[in-house]
Design brief:
80% of the residues lie in helices and 0% in strands. With 89 residues, it is an all-alpha fold. The protein has one domain. The longest helix has 28 residues, at 25-52. The radius of gyration is 15 Å and the shape is elongated.
Length: 89
């Protein structure tokens, strides 16, 4: 069985976010802020815990969480570049 690389996971997330952006840009903006913030807080908490006490959390977890923080930002940038702005602003 072949492992999925982190870049493939991020591209999948970006595609899902872009579909939401195309459907409704206001809802996508709110979901991107919420999910991005949640992933960032989980990542920061995990990093602090990792510094305090070394755990056996694999490296790919931190990579996945970092890419999950970047995916909504990339999708939002792509959408605003393609549409020259947001419709609800």
């Amino acid at each position: 069985m072949q492992r999925i690389r982190p870049i493939e996971i991020m591209l999948g997330e970006v595609v899902i976010y872009l579909i939401i952006w195309i459907a409704n840009d206001y809802m996508a903006a709110m979901l991107s802020l919420i999910f991005g913030s949640i992933f960032l807080l989980i990542l920061l908490t995990s990093l602090v815990v990792e510094v305090v006490e070394k755990s056996k959390v694999p490296r790919w977890y931190f990579i996945f969480m970092g890419l999950s923080v970047l995916a909504p930002i990339i999708a939002a940038l792509l959408y605003t570049l393609i549409n020259q702005g947001l419709g609800w602003l």
